[in-house]
Amino acid sequence: IVTAAHCTVGDATNRWRIRVGSTWANSGGVVHNVNANIIHPSFNRNTLDNDIAILRSPTTFSFNNNVRAASIAGSNYNLGDNQAVWAAGWGDTFQGSNQGSEQLRHVELRSINQNTCRNNYAVRGVAITDNMLCVGWSGGGRDACQGDS
């Protein structure tokens, strides 16, 4: 399972479970234990550069209509500007609610030019690296939220 390193770094592997085959956060599908949490070796907690990790399970997944392997882009893949991308998760449905969704939610967003993103975040003192993907919605009002990582 590919996930965000900032969500799992420092946690014991037995803290995590993987639920596959369900759109519900706490029911349905099949639950798998985690036996390895592999954090990107260059992950930086302060800048969130290389914010990626892999959770491994000692058991195999049974693939079906509800459980499929993700496609991962190659190292030379370049996502163009203003391309449709999707974010999904069980995170908060509005900022500051601290109330995750029980039902899996998703939102369509658009890729943002990397230099535009860098410039917009530089004024806030945030560095955007080549290892990061910038997405958003031009009119606002759509986004991932806390707990969706």
UniProtKB/TrEMBL annotation:
GO biological process: one example: proteolysis
SUPFAM superfamilies noted in UniProt: Trypsin-like serine proteases
The Peptidase S1 domain, residue ranges: 1-149
UniProt xrefs under Pfam families: Trypsin
Superkingdom to which the source organism belongs: Eukaryota
GO MF assignments: serine-type endopeptidase activity
Gene3D superfamilies documented for this protein: Trypsin-like serine proteases (2.40.10.10)
PANTHER family reported for this sequence: ACROSIN-RELATED, TRANSMEMBRANE PROTEASE SERINE 3-LIKE
Protein name (database record): Putative trypsin AiJ5
Species whose genome carries this gene: Agrotis ipsilon (Black cutworm moth)
